[in-house]
Write a structure and sequence with these properties.
This protein has helices at about 1-5, 15-20, 25-40, 75-80, 100-115, 120-130, 140-150, 160-175, 190-200, 205, 210-220, 225-240, 245-250, 255-260, and strands spanning about 40-50, 50-60, 90-95, 150, 155. It has 3 domains: about 1-100, no CATH class; about 135-175, no CATH class; about 180-260, no CATH class. By secondary structure, the chain is mainly alpha-helical. A hairpin with a 2-residue loop joins β4 and β5. The longest helix has 15 residues, at about 100-115. The chain contains 14 helices and 5 strands.
């Protein structure tokens, strides 16, 4: 009784609901409610529509002063299986609401919400790109699909992560990796050492830079290994996702690096 009286106003009271919040089992809870009824702390009154019971009224009194006229035999109520429905109002408990149109609509709406596409933010896309090690720009991806209304072809997008995977696959097709046999034999060692170094210190760029890119960038810094390493670190740390060679050239053109290379 103390637990029931402590429930907030508007609590959808039911026996099954009470069972779910206490540690006792079903039989113990039902016995306790029967005891409350027998001692005047709980009353249940059927509300009829014609020859059919449409509702039950639950009334609780902490002083045990429920009028006998409101009491209804516990066993008689349970035989009608009125507790097997989903929701109860703490005063008027409609036993016929299980299959009402409102309940069906709520269930359908809930199922539709599960399937409803949620547009990602640029931060969501960037996090997924980082997680998967992809190499395209999150803002470009977002702006592209934002302009199209988040559709794929003519159909609404269902899975933006799948679209990200397709973008990465297309990027790899457009930018195939440089075949090893095109690398001059006398430069294989330098290229191999560069790959090891990038995977350790600039892993985000390691799979994006081909041997041709490597050769161009080394030439820009006059084969100064220190200058090359510093610029690559700057690009990697900045999160740049465009043309690495062009970004490398832009940094080389700054006064700071021109002075460093000349020295």
């Amino acid at each position: 009784m103390a637990i029931i009286m402590a429930l907030p106003d508007g609590w959808d009271f039911s026996v099954n609901g009470l069972i779910s919040i206490v540690k006792e089992g079903e039989s113990a809870v039902r016995s306790a409610i029967k005891e409350l009824i027998d001692n005047g702390y709980c009353g249940r009154k059927p509300v009829r529509e014609g020859n059919r019971i449409s509702k039950w009224q639950y009334i609780f009194d902490g002083d045990g002063n429920i009028e006998k006229s409101l009491l209804c035999g516990f066993q008689q109520v349970e035989n009608l299986q009125v507790e097997n429905r989903g929701q109860y109002n703490n005063i008027n408990n409609n036993i016929s609401s299980i299959n009402t149109p409102d309940e069906k609509e709520k269930k359908e709406e809930k199922n539709n919400n599960k399937k409803r596409f949620l547009k990602p933010t640029i931060q969501d896309i960037a996090a997924y790109i980082k997680e998967k090690g992809f190499h395209f720009d999150a803002s470009t991806f977002f702006d592209y699909y934002e302009s199209k209304g988040w559709v794929v072809g003519r159909s609404p997008m269902k899975d933006w992560k799948a679209a990200c995977r397709l973008w990465e696959s297309k990027r790899k097709q457009d930018q195939p990796e440089e075949p090893v046999d095109e690398i001059p034999a006398d430069d294989l060692d330098s290229w191999g050492l560069n790959q090891i170094w990038m995977k350790n210190f600039t892993p985000r760029l390691a799979d994006r830079i081909t041997y041709k890119d490597f050769a161009k960038m080394r030439a820009m810094v006059l084969f100064n290994a220190k200058a090359y390493a510093e610029i690559i670190k700057i690009i990697d740390k900045s999160g740049y996702d465009g043309d690495i060679v062009k970004e490398f050239e832009r940094i080389c053109d700054t006064h700071e690096f021109k002075e460093r290379i000349l020295v």
